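Researcher: We plan to redesign the surface later, but first we want a full-length starting point. Tokens attached.
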């Protein structure tokens, strides 16, 4: 039996569509990180789609709502009576701090992009301000009237050689209570975990102390005398923390790891129904991971993975994304796209009012006869 030859000859050609975030329905999608958009025309018989070119603004907040909080306690306040020192102000400050020994003092730094020196200054001012508010609240509650302006014993500095933060206090011992962050929701990583369907404790990106170089355990300050005060030997003097009260000892904590304020190095683009990238998920200690050999990763979770090669504020351009969506047989028609830009932890990318654009490449299969008739 002779086979009847197929008279249809198919050819492939590329069709490009340029998409701009500002063209979305801004009343419906005020954030450009997630929106629907219709293309100028239906694209028929699509056999392959990939991300061709793109340009994005580098204006992200390395410190944002998920990692802007740190907590600490004053656990060994300076007591003037122990050093034969008489001062009404310092005695009442001691009373306020002693009363709040078990109180976690909360500090929220400003969202944004910091260099290490800026973060050290921000933390110094925020720590002192938080203790000032605590003392003033105690004075008001107990009707204490003293000439008190502000608490200024904290000093936090950046060691430019080993790239670590040092937390110091000129008189009071303190604890950075990283463990308490693990039990609170609000703006901390636990909420992000819940958004991903798990409340397990994560090992990375769990809050501001992680970015500052701390581990998920409480860090207790070390008391040092005048002769053993912390010193940066790469500077001429190098003594950055000295006692400010009679008989006082300075207290300090050296962050065990280098400070990391670079922010996210990449993000994912999702196109609903067109995703083609499988994505691993962070390991977490749960009953599932302890009793199963299965992965907790996600299949077809994204369409493209986009690197962030620059720091704010700038604009970056790139092209030729390797992943592509293949259709066998070709997709009949594609007209509407649902775009979502997110980080690996599920948090949406926030571009604010900055616009971006990208170009999609469609490989279209067409009957040669129909194509000749069309053109």
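Model: Full-length starting sequence:
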């Amino acid at each position: 039996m002779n086979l009847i030859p197929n008279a249809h000859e198919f050819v492939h050609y590329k069709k490009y569509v340029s998409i701009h975030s500002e063209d979305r329905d801004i009343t419906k999608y005020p954030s450009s990180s997630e929106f629907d958009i219709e293309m100028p025309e239906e694209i028929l018989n699509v056999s392959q789609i990939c991300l061709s070119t793109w340009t994005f603004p580098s204006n992200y907040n390395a410190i944002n709502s998920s990692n802007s909080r740190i907590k600490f306690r004053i656990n060994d306040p300076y007591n003037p009576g122990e050093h034969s020192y008489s001062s009404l102000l310092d005695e009442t400050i001691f009373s306020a701090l002693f009363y709040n020994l078990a109180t976690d003092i909360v500090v929220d730094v400003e969202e944004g992009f910091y260099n290490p020196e800026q973060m050290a200054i921000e933390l110094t001012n925020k720590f002192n301000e938080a203790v000032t508010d605590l003392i003033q609240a105690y004075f008001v509650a107990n009707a204490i009237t003293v000439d008190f302006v502000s608490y200024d014993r904290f000093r936090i500095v950046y060691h430019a050689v080993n790239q670590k933060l040092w937390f110091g206090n000129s008189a009071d011992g303190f604890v950075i209570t990283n463990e308490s962050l693990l039990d609170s929701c609000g703006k901390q990583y636990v909420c992000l975990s819940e958004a991903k369907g798990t409340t397990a404790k994560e090992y990375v990106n769990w809050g501001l102390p992680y970015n500052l170089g701390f581990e998920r355990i409480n860090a207790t300050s070390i008391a040092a005398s005048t002769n053993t005060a912390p010193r940066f030997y790469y500077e001429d003097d190098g003594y950055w923390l000295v006692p400010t009260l009679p008989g006082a000892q300075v207290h300090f904590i050296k962050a065990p790891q280098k400070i990391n304020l670079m922010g996210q190095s990449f993000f994912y683009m999702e196109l609903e129904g067109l995703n083609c990238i499988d994505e691993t998920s962070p390991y977490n200690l749960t009953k599932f991971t302890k009793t199963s050999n299965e992965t907790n990763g996600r299949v077809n979770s994204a369409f493209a993975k986009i690197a962030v090669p620059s720091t704010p504020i700038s604009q970056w351009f790139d092209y030729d994304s390797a992943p592509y969506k293949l259709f066998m047989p070709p997709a009949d028609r594609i007209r509407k796209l649902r775009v979502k830009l997110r980080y690996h932890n599920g948090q949406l990318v926030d571009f604010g009012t900055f616009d971006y654009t990208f170009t999609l490449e469609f490989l279209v299969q067409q009957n040669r006869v129909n194509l000749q008739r069309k053109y």
